[in-house]
Amino acid sequence: MGSLGSPQHKTTHHIIVVPEGRYCPIPDLVFPEPYTYEPHNHFSTPQDKIVERIRPATILILSAVPFSDYHLSAECTPNLQMIAVMASGTDHLNLDICRKRGITVSNARSANVAAVSEHAVGLYFAARRKFRIVERAMRAGEWMKGSCHPLLLDSKGENAPTCGEEVLGVVGYGRIGQRIAEMGRMLGMKVLVAERKGAETIRDGRMEFGDVLKQATVIVLILPKTEDTIYLISTAELGMMKPQSILINVSRGGIVDEEALVQALKAGQIAGAAVDVFSEEPAGPDNSVLAREDTRNLNLILTPHVAWVAETTTTNVKLITKQNIEGWLAGRPVNVVT
């Protein structure tokens, strides 16, 4: 075993548990002597088995699957010292509990930049060109009866714009937001970067949040879910948008008021929306207003939180998770959230 530094951990034998290994199995870890580890890699874990499986863990490798406060408690996981999250978002964990217990939480920030950016652009084209609506019409034999061209007209009877006519508003300017802005420029779009909502000072290169909503024809949300971003987009914000605008959410569920979005689409306030994340996940007709039967005829594209999926993402997650765990054990933690 190669040396990683001078670890200060009292535990020499670690139990590493992965409840949802289908997303990313335990990477090949190198622990310095005298440290060893025992992997418990589960492809998936039903809720009635989660407590039993995570109880012995000193290190947990988690996906973005919801994790309750009880799971983080000393009663449930008495030996837990470190959580490596295989995603950038950690809003599914109660970080206050982790801080109080001295549990280090790391994430895999930037692992999914390419995949999420490309998915967002794909959602844009799907919504702008109304793929879902025109495909359904063709399968129903509508083309045999006459041209499907009218299906692509907007509320004013005008054709869909091309990329060179679009104004892209990016809300959230981390690595993914920057990549989406870059891709938008490459497609010929004018790009506006939104300042934080309610900010008193507008940073160079950014525009006031409300002004971006008013000017953009395509709005992409790619920002973390916090107390400040819950329902960032609701009835008032949707009312600011242009009738021809497309709203894309590839960040987190709960940032968009889903009921307000459905009402805006039904009223023709905006031209369409594409959503990869939901207030409650997994989402379906029984628990999501976006997936209800009454939304079938709307220009609303839904994908089941799969924007991150790509071989590149998995490769990056494995590498970052390995670095996070080995760095923590060596006393040089990286990508620390708390």
Automatic annotation (TrEMBL):
The keyword Repressor does not apply. The keyword Hydrolase does not apply. Keywords: NAD, Oxidoreductase. InterPro entries: D-iso_2-hydroxyacid_DH_PdxB, D-isomer_2_OHA_DH_cat_dom, D-isomer_DH_NAD-bd, NAD(P)-bd_dom_sf. Residues 122-307 form the D-isomer specific 2-hydroxyacid dehydrogenase NAD-binding domain. GO terms for molecular function: NAD binding; oxidoreductase activity, acting on the CH-OH group of donors, NAD or NADP as acceptor. Belongs to the D-isomer specific 2-hydroxyacid dehydrogenase family. This is Glycerate dehydrogenase. It comes from Teratosphaeria nubilosa.
